[in-house]
């Protein structure tokens, strides 16, 4: 019984029944010469295929909307009234087939969303009172331990609390290579275990998982209209009544009712109406498959116009994890180990981010960095001064050293040369002095990401004419990084509000600007930019919901990929509009100058709808990236410098 009900409500039921009635009518006319029965069966075919169309047209009229269904309804009813039963049946039958194919192919373009929903886990195995229980995934409580075995789906967002394994995270990040997971690593609902055994402490369940947020975002984005789509809606609202008026006018002038009805059918803007939404759905779906969430059609369209990209340095062009790179003693009685140990012990009482790489390096070298200085005084904008074993130790920029009593100007000058050299190489230098005597210079650096130069190249290939680095770092360090990665312009020493001004200035120059940042100190600039891009936001609910483009994986090459996808989608939209308009123009000319009947016109019209949909579906194919071109830039270190510690360092 359920199978019969499903078939009756299926998308192909109406065209199949209508088609069988048309075949029966033709058989009655040609084989049995039963003209009356042939007419009855042909009208029945028109009624079966046309009833859903008339209902939709009436519902639209009650909502004060005049659309394609009204044109077909008027044409079919008029054809029946004047005795053109074949034309009425053919038009409604072809329209029913076109609607069924349109629905089927549109569902295909929404495949990314369907696949996301398909990977959503149904059940979970939890540990309760030492027992393994299988429960629905949405019933897992926060903090419970979930077991993930080889081949199963991870049912919750969580942190690995035990075991090791590999997870296929393609549904979240778009990355096809499984990722190894060990204790302390984050995992996401919907990812699939490809090996090992994991114990996971649940931190997000049900609607609070990253997968659920992605599904919600893609649903909203695929339904959101682009500016072009909104224009096409307004255009259709005027175009459809204009076609009706034209058909009536030609009918009155020529006294040819068939001509008037044919003009109604031929003028149907079906391919035009669907040309934009199908491209948007396919483009956003392709992005979702590849770990790029685009907020909606409007943002997709804006992204295609991006010709300037502003990048934060720390954590975007660089790894965001500074390490010690240089230890330069400046006194004959001080070696590298002495200098590093002294700096590390002094920094032990500092809360500054640059203290950690110094302490970590000393610890890794087996040096006894234990206890805290007797006193530590941070000096804003300069560094720290610590009291250690009765001596005053200063670690910071030259301004701090020059303020120390008893400092030797000659030593300070030697230190300045080293500081300038290190800063020019992209490092953050800090001078170390004891009781005013300069002992040497230590420097830390944040490694440039290996794919940063390739990202810049691909952005240029995608049509971006200006890539600007915005950083709070000092100018020598910023320029060193810029030279290595290949950005077009550098703006250094910026505060968050300065970054906002820089983005606004680019917009005043006529650029469509995308800002890429961490979403915290870059929030003002992200909000001001035409497109705000958050990168590596898997598991970050706020970024997924608020960013115009959210790149799930911390992969720089996803940025040019997103820009390229946006441009291809908009180009696809324009192709579809051209196909739809040219088809209508050619058919109208064919009707007016003879040769195109109502049935032929409807057939060509439905073919144009399918051509538009198939063209949009090309966006669903994964586009292989071009191999990297050799570059003469060698990725090197940059620095996570803080202006407060590096100001005047050069």
UniProtKB/TrEMBL annotation:
Residues 120-219 form the P-type ATPase A domain. SUPFAM superfamilies: Calcium ATPase, transduction domain A, Calcium ATPase, transmembrane domain M, HAD-like. Gene3D superfamilies: Calcium-transporting ATPase, cytoplasmic domain N, Calcium-transporting ATPase, cytoplasmic transduction domain A, HAD superfamily/HAD-like. It comes from Ornithinimicrobium ciconiae. Keywords: ATP-binding, Cell membrane, Membrane, Metal-binding, Nucleotide-binding, Translocase, Transmembrane, Transmembrane helix. GO terms for molecular function: ATP binding; ATP hydrolysis activity; ATPase-coupled monoatomic cation transmembrane transporter activity; metal ion binding. The keyword Nucleotide-binding applies. Residues 623-650 are annotated as: Disordered. The keyword Transmembrane helix applies. InterPro entries: ATPase_P-typ_cyto_dom_N, ATPase_P-typ_P_site, ATPase_P-typ_TM_dom_sf, ATPase_P-typ_transduc_dom_A_sf, ATPase_P-type_domA, Cation_Transport_ATPase_IB, HAD-like_sf, HAD_sf. This is Cation-translocating P-type ATPase. Residues 623-632 have a biased composition (Basic and acidic residues). It is a multi-pass membrane protein. The chain crosses the membrane at residues 12-31, 37-58, 65-82, 88-106, 235-253, 259-285, 577-596, 602-620. NCBIfam families: ATPase-IB_hvy, ATPase_P-type. One of its GO terms (cellular component) is plasma membrane.
């Amino acid at each position: 019984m359920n199978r019969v009900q499903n078939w009756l409500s299926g998308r192909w039921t109406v065209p199949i029944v209508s088609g069988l009635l048309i075949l029966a009518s033709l058989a009655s006319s040609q084989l049995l010469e039963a003209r009356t029965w042939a007419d009855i069966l042909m009208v029945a075919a028109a009624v079966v295929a046309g009833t859903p169309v008339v209902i939709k047209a009436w519902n639209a009229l009650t909502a004060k909307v005049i659309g394609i269904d009204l044109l077909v309804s008027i044409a079919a009813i008029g054809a029946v009234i004047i005795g053109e039963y074949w034309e009425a049946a053919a038009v409604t039958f072809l329209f029913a087939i076109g609607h069924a194919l349109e629905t089927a192919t549109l569902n295909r373009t929404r495949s990314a969303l369907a696949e996301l929903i398909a990977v959503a886990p149904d059940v979970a195995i939890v540990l309760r009172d030492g027992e393994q229980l299988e429960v629905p995934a949405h019933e897992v409580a926060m903090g419970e331990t979930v077991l993930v075995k080889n081949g199963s789906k991870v049912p919750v967002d969580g942190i690995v609390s035990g075991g090791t394994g590999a997870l296929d995270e393609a549904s979240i990040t778009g990355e096809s290579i499984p990722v190894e997971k060990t204790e302390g690593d984050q995992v996401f609902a919907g990812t699939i275990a490809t090996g090992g055994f994991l114990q996971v402490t649940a931190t997000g369940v049900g609607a609070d998982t990253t997968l659920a947020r992605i599904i919600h975002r893609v649903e909203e984005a695929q339904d959101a209209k682009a500016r072009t789509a909104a224009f096409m809606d307004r255009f259709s609202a005027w175009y459809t009544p204009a076609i009706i008026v034209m058909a009536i006018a030609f009918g009155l002038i020529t006294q040819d009712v068939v001509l008037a009805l044919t003009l109604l059918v031929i003028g149907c803007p079906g391919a035009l109406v669907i040309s934009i939404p199908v491209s948007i759905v396919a483009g956003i779906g392709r992005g979702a498959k590849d770990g790029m969430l685009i907020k909606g059609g409007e943002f997709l369209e804006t992204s295609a116009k991006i010709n300037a990209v502003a990048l934060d340095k720390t954590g975007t062009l660089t790894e965001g994890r500074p390490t010690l790179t240089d230890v330069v003693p400046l006194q004959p009685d001080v070696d590298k180990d002495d200098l590093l140990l002294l700096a590390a012990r002094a920094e032990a009482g500092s809360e500054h981010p640059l203290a950690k790489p110094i302490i970590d390096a000393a610890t890794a070298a087996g040096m006894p960095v234990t206890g805290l200085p007797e006193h530590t005084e941070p000096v804003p904008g300069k560094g720290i001064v610590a009291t250690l074993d009765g001596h005053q130790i200063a670690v910071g920029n030259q301004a701090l050293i020059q303020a120390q009593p008893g400092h030797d100007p000659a030593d300070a000058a030697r230190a300045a040369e080293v500081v300038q050299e290190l800063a020019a190489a992209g490092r953050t230098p800090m001078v170390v002095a004891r009781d005013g005597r300069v002992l040497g210079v230590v420097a830390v650096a944040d490694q440039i990401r290996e794919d940063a130069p390739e990202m810049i190249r691909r952005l240029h290939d995608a049509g971006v004419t200006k890539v600007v680095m915005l950083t709070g770092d000092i100018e020598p360090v910023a320029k060193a990084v810029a030279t290595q990665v290949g950005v077009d312009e550098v703006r250094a020493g910026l505060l968050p509000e300065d970054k906002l001004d820089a983005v606004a200035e680019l917009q005043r120059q006529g650029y469509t600007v995308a800002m890429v940042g961490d979403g915290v100190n870059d929030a003002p600039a992200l909000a001001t930019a035409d497109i705000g891009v958050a990168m590596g936001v898997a598991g970050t609910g706020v970024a997924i919901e608020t960013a115009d483009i959210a790149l799930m994986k911390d992969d720089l090459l996803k940025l040019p990929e997103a820009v390229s996808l946006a441009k291809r989608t908009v180009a696809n939209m324009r192709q579809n509009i051209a196909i739809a308009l040219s088809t209508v123009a050619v058919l109208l000319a064919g009707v007016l100058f003879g040769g195109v009947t109502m049935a032929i016109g409807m057939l060509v019209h439905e073919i144009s709808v399918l051509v538009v949909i198939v063209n949009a579906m090309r966006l669903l194919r994964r586009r292989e990236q071009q191999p990297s071109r050799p570059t003469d830039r060698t990725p090197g270190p940059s620095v996570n410098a803080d202006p407060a510690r590096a100001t005047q360092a050069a």
